[in-house]
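Figure S4 source data
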Amino acid sequence: MKDTRVVGSDIAKRVFQIHAAGADGRAAFGETLSRGKLLGCLRQEPRCAVAMEARATAHQREIAALGHDVRAIPPVHAKPFVKRQT
């Protein structure tokens, strides 16, 4: 997406749930990706802010190396963004 401004990522053991918002704040896309496919997906995106839970992970450095602005947020602040299907 050319208008992607923010990508949010929820980290799990084997998959990443990502959601992107455009400059207007509307959802651009949402996907569930394996760890191996995350960097490939973000490599295709223009430079943007990537918000993810602050954990000891090498993915933050790898994503930053792609030119993205990685913002680590505490898990307690990420919880309101988790949508559960009940």
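Figure S5 source data
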Amino acid sequence: MDQPLAPLESNPPDGAAEATVAAADAAVVREANRRSRRAFVLTGLTALAGLGGWRWLVSQPDEAGIPWTLRRILDANGRVAAAYFRETRLAPVFPPSRARALRVNAHYGLRDKAFDPATWRLRVQAYGTGQMHEFTLADLQALPRVEMITEFKCIEGWSTIVQWAGVRFSDFLTRYPLAVRAGVPEKLAPYVSLMTPDKAYYVGLDMHSALHPQTLLCYELNGVPLTADHGAPLRLVTPLKYGIKHIKRIGTIAFADTRPADFWAERGYDWDAGH
């Protein structure tokens, strides 16, 4: 004989349902509050740890203008850039139609009101002897002329494609081997120092960068001689490095066994400044 069906349970009264929902909502709120307090505490601890770390960092002794810990990081970046550097690695070149006017940016080393381009001479100190040699712009223009259209990259984040003309640094040193130690033909200086005539701006290069085929002693910009704002009569162009290395109005070149001073490296930037 079939068993009678069990009666269905009746729905709880409305008041019970509301109590169940209210209890669930209260549980959610409690959990949210718990997580919010934990997140607040963790955020506060993280902020305090960051502040403490920053205070420790800036309290460290300076090395070449910045705390030594930051300098170690920049030096590590420089070693990576040096390892990556190859003379066969060239910056991209562009057609003449892509060349644009180069904005004027910074006048470090260009503020000498008494400077006369007509009497300018490039002074080069021979490696090892310290003897000074002087060159006119005509001396440089007598060497093989090189034109290239490359991208000038500023460390501020902007860039412009520019047409340059001048003499390769390597061709200059081939014609005038002043970077070779006198009496030791195989001894080439490992570093180059360049300075404006007023000594207000200066950069350092490793010799591999100086001898790169796209590193120019430049005297023309977009088909015309350099203007005073762009470093007349002679500036450096080295397109695998940021513009802070492209020293304007070169006055003196010297060669060194140790890494020479660099204006922006002393102010917290990477000495190598490659990109």
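Residues 14-58 form the longest helix (45 residues). The chain is about 30% helix and 20% strand.
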